[in-house]
């Protein structure tokens, strides 16, 4: 057996969930779900008021938490030690490098002991800080508090700020006088978390979350009026599409971005007439994505239209941006994935990825001359931060690797001068020469090569004896960067190999890498992760009885799938907010994410074929009596993305079906949602808890 039974001896009796069978028949196929009752009928209302949760459900979750605490009680000191190490690597009174915008420069800071950011500004070229919003003050007395940012208006007199104090991602917006720190009477509730100012600074636009937690309406709010008087600007009737609202650097347009995971549509509202109907740019066309940025008299549009799988950039006149007027500016090159773009008065900039590594490309708009910003390490992360002003030659970018702390640069696109603004401080000390970062390629079942990024201490013996934390995600085209993590050092310093498997379902090797890990090809994601484990064992980095797998959300689905497919290859599994009840969730079109997620997983309501795809791998539906390793599942009671009942049901079924394996531990954050607790140190405590489980399972306590 791969798992470490000795680590979990003398456990108390595990909670036993009541079985209340419910049957569901689709496409002539009938399934029985013994634990469907964990889905509270009043879940939507409960997200706003957790006190109304069914007492039987609450009692079970509390029993699971007690069992988990008993199983991991011996890690209490280890958790404290890990937390102290992680906290010691953070500069407590840290602050960002302010970004220039008009007469001011804006930034955020933390104070020693503080959990929440403080938003400040200084005069443009330096001077005394003025704190506009103190996150610690706003969070005082609340079990959960997450800020949604602070956005200033064009005359810099007022700012919109948002907060979520439940973890349910329903944000309340307030308007603050930036000089006095006082909030106006305006209160705008149930929003997605941010607002976009009109140029006059007297009104703003926002998206409203509907009763199913979907951002389906854009409203225009005039300062001083009640929310009930807000004008509906646009309503998206298709529940399969999300919607966001944004602005341009020139303040000429309000962008309404409508999208699912493979199709997008933009509507534009000229700020010269805020009462006009939004203008359609290009009608949605299944599988065609596009995003826009303003460049003076033209729009630059990033799109995969005309089979440009790795995307290209086109331009169109501001006066007539329809698809018939799109002309190619940056052509499609297979293998060069363009990730994002931005336009300024004299330059067009984009972030691209070639051969799995990112680089920034700058083009002079007048001449077409191009140059690139790139680095030489085997694996690294690059972030394009851009600028807050249109008429500028200076943009900002960040760089890090798994051994190199994050560095922030200002870059002059005209002179190519690079100025290092800040290097991430590690107060307790960090010597990059003590560590090794590598990228290895794991052969997959079909001959593809899966990149795996590695971090370990230089003195780690690579004879198979080292424990390994193998992390994966693999969905929505998300690429997990090979960036610097102060937290991972706590594992590396204990002899762990820390590994990230860049599996299909992400865009690590281009758009095709994403397409090969979704819909009918979803199982490639799981097989790639197992292939990464196989390769690390073959090359002597670790052994099967030393690998702890970790993933969250869609990566939690990955954890559930590999647990079913190859339980003997993992010593333990950490599944954070795991999307494990895939079939039931995709069959429930009242849930917040279900209709927009059908292009990613399939629609089992309409299609028997797609039902069968999902049924073949859905972790909850494929639990069997197998030698599962110890599993730690983590959930949030008010999580609207992966609802609390998914991991709860999964653990109950694992325990009932394979009682001799495990153990199976469930931790439910009773006052948090999808992202866990919101404070920066609270988050470190959660990571310390997860790492303590991994260390215990690996027998390294």
TrEMBL record:
GO molecular function: serine-type endopeptidase activity
Matches recorded under Gene3D superfamilies: alpha/beta hydrolase, Prolyl oligopeptidase, N-terminal domain
Cited SUPFAM superfamilies: alpha/beta-Hydrolases (SSF53474), Peptidase/esterase 'gauge' domain (SSF50993)
Hydrolase in keyword set: yes
Every Peptidase S9A N-terminal domain range: 15-423
Region (Disordered): 1-27
EC number in record: 3.4.21.83
GO biological process: proteolysis
Residue ranges occupied by any Peptidase S9 prolyl oligopeptidase catalytic domain in the UniProt entry: 483-699
One Pfam family linked to the record: Peptidase_S9
Entry keywords, A to Z: Hydrolase, Protease, Serine protease
InterPro entries for the chain: AB_hydrolase_fold, Pept_S9_AS, Pept_S9A_N, Peptidase_S9_cat, Peptidase_S9A, Serine_Peptidase_S9A
Family assignment from sequence similarity: Belongs to the peptidase S9A family.
Protein name as it appears in the record: Oligopeptidase B
Source organism: Rhizobium rhizoryzae
Organism lineage string: Bacteria, Pseudomonadati, Pseudomonadota, Alphaproteobacteria, Hyphomicrobiales
């Amino acid at each position: 057996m791969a798992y470490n039974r000795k680590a979990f001896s003398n456990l108390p009796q595990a909670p036993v969930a009541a079985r209340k069978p419910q049957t569901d028949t689709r496409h002539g196929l009938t399934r029985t779900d013994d634990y469907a009752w964990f889905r509270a009928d009043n879940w939507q209302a409960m997200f706003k008021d957790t006190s109304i949760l069914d007492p039987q459900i609450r009692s079970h979750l509390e029993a699971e938490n007690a069992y988990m605490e008993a199983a991991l009680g011996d890690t209490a000191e280890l958790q404290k030690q890990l937390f102290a190490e992680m906290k010691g690597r953070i500069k407590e009174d840290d602050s960002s490098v302010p970004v220039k915008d008009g007469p001011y420069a804006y930034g955020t800071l933390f104070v020693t002991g503080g959990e929440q950011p403080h938003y400040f500004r200084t005069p443009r070229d330096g001077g005394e800080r003025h704190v506009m919003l103190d996150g610690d003050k706003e969070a005082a007395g609340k079990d959960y508090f997450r800020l949604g940012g602070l956005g200033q208006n064009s005359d810099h007199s007022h700012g919109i700020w948002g907060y979520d104090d439940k973890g349910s991602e329903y944000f309340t917006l307030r308007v603050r006088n930036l000089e006095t720190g006082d909030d106006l009477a305006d209160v705008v509730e149930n929003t997605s978390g941010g607002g976009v100012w009109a140029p006059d600074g007297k009104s703003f636009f926002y998206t409203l979350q509907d009763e199913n937690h979907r951002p389906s309406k854009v409203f225009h709010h005039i300062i001083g009026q009640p929310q009930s008087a807000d004008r509906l600007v646009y309503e998206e009737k298709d529940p399969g599409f999300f919607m966001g609202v944004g602005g341009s650097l020139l303040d000429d347009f309000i962008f309404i971005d409508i999208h699912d995971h493979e199709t997008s549509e933009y509507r534009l509202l000229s700020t010269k007439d805020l009462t006009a109907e939004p203008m359609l740019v290009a009608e949605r066309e299944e599988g065609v994505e596009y995003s826009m940025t303003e460049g003076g008299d033209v729009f630059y549009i990033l799109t995969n239209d005309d089979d440009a799988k790795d995307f290209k950039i086109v331009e169109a006149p501001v006066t007539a941006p329809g698809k018939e007027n799109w002309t190619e500016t940056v052509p499609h090159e297979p293998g060069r994935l363009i990730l994002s773009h931005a336009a300024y008065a004299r330059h067009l900039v984009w972030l691209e990825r070639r051969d799995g590594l990112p680089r920034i490309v700058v083009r002079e708009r007048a001449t077409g001359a191009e140059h690139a910003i790139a680095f030489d390490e085997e694996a690294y992360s690059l972030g394009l931060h851009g600028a807050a002003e249109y008429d500028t030659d200076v943009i900002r970018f960040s760089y890090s690797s798994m051994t190199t702390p994050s560095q922030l640069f200002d870059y002059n696109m005209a002179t190519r001068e690079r100025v290092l603004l800040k290097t991430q401080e590690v107060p307790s000390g960090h010597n990059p020469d003590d560590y090794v970062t590598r990228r290895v390629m794991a052969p997959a079942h079909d001959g593809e090569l899966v990149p795996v990024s590695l971090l370990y201490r230089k003195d780690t013996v690579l004879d198979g004896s080292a424990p390994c934390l193998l992390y994966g995600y693999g969905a929505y085209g998300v690429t997990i960067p090979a960036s610097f993590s102060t937290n991972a050092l706590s594992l590396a310093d204990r002899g762990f190999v820390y590994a990230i498997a860049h599996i299909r379902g992400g865009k690590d090797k281009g758009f095709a890498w994403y397409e090969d890990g979704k819909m009918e090809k979803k199982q490639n994601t799981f097989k790639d992760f197992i292939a990464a484990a196989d390769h690390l064992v073959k090359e002597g980095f670790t052994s099967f009885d030393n690998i702890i797998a970790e993933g969250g959300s869609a990566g939690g689905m990955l954890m559930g799938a590999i647990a079913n497919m190859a339980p003997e290859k993992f010593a333990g599994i950490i599944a954070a907010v795991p999307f494990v009840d895939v079939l039931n969730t995709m069959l429930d079109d009242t849930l917040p994410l279900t209709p927009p997620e059908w292009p990613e997983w399939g629609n089992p309501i309409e299609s028997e074929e797609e039902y069968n795809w999902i049924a073949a791998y859905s972790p909850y539906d494929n639990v069997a009596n197998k030698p599962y390793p110890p599993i730690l599942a983590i959930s949030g009671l008010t999580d609207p993305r992966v609802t609390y009942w998914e991991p709860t049901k999964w653990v109950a079924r694992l325990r009932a079906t394979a009682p001799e394996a495990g153990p199976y531990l469930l931790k439910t954050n009773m006052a948090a949602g999808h992202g866990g607790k919101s404070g920066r140190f609270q988050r470190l405590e959660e990571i310390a808890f997860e790492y303590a489980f991994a260390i215990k399972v690996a027998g390294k306590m």
